[in-house]
């Protein structure tokens, strides 16, 4: 009888490990880490834009002192956006994510107003180069946000579906994470960027 008990122990161990692996023990944290990595990409691209803005403002200032209010708006929007931070641990708080998104949308809108106010600067090489870099950065931001939203969707689906929902709830206390959404009126429509070089 004791030998039967010892023979059964390894089988029970294998069954236990197999059942736990099907309950999201590894899949849930893997999905969560993927969301955090995509969030870091979003933050990195927004930081790249914030780093380009002082160069753009300096270039426009050098070209003329008109439309000073728009330069002030761009600078203030950038400063406000850099103050709003959302660490990965707070991605389940929709209010924090929306505050971050609103601050970044304000930067986008102020850059659009700047671009529209300076049509005569489009022929200047520095201005054109900086605006092209900003346009590229906006595209990278859009891709990073899309990738983040896809990672959030995969994570939120995983923690709500069987069998991973069991491990997500019991072992991790997992909560749904917040995707980006259009919170500013008109933010769902990308701003028109025209560098005056379209034929």
A few lines on this structure:
Helix content is 71%, strand content 0%. The chain is mainly alpha-helical and 199 residues long. It has one domain: de novo design (two linked rop proteins), CATH 1.20.1440.20.
Give me some keywords for this one.
single chain, 199 residues, mainly alpha, de novo design (two linked rop proteins), 71% helix, disordered C terminus
Strand runs, count: 0
Report how far the terminal alpha carbons are from each other: 89 Å
Low-confidence region ranges: 11-20, 193-199
By CATH, the topology is de novo design (two linked rop proteins)
Q: Which superfamily, in CATH terms, is the homologous superfamily?
A: LemA-like domain
What's the structural blueprint in terms of helices and strands?
Blueprint: H1 2-21, H2 27-63, H3 68-83, H4 94-117, H5 125-160, H6 164-172
Helix pairs in contact: 2-3, 2-5, 3-4
Structure, explained:
This protein has 6 helices and no strands. It is mainly α and 199 residues long. The longest helix is centred in the N-terminal third of the chain and has 37 residues, at 27-63. The protein is elongated and about 65 Å long. The N and C termini lie far apart (89 Å). Mean pLDDT is 80; it is low at 11-20 and 193-199.
């Amino acid at each position: 009888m004791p030998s039967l008990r010892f023979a059964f122990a390894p089988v029970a161990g294998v069954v236990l490990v197999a059942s736990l692996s099907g309950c999201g023990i590894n899949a849930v944290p893997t999905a969560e880490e993927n969301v955090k990595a995509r969030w870091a990409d979003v933050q990195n691209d927004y930081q790249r834009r914030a780093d380009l803005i002082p160069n753009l403002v300096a270039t426009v200032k050098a070209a003329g002192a008109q439309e000073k209010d728009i330069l002030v708006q761009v600078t203030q929007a950038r400063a406000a956006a850099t103050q709003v931070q959302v660490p990965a641990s707070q991605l389940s708080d929709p209010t924090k994510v929306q505050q971050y998104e609103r601050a970044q949308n304000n930067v986008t809108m102020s850059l659009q107003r700047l671009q529209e106010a300076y049509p005569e600067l489009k022929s200047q090489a520095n201005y054109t180069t900086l605006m092209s870099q900003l346009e590229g950065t906006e595209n990278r931001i859009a891709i990073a946000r899309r990738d983040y939203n896809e990672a959030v969707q995969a994570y939120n689906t995983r923690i709500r579906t069987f069998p991973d929902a069991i491990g997500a709830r019991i072992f991790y206390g997992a909560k749904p994470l917040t995707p980006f959404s259009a919170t500013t009126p008109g933010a769902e429509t990308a701003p028109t960027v025209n560098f005056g070089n379209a034929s």
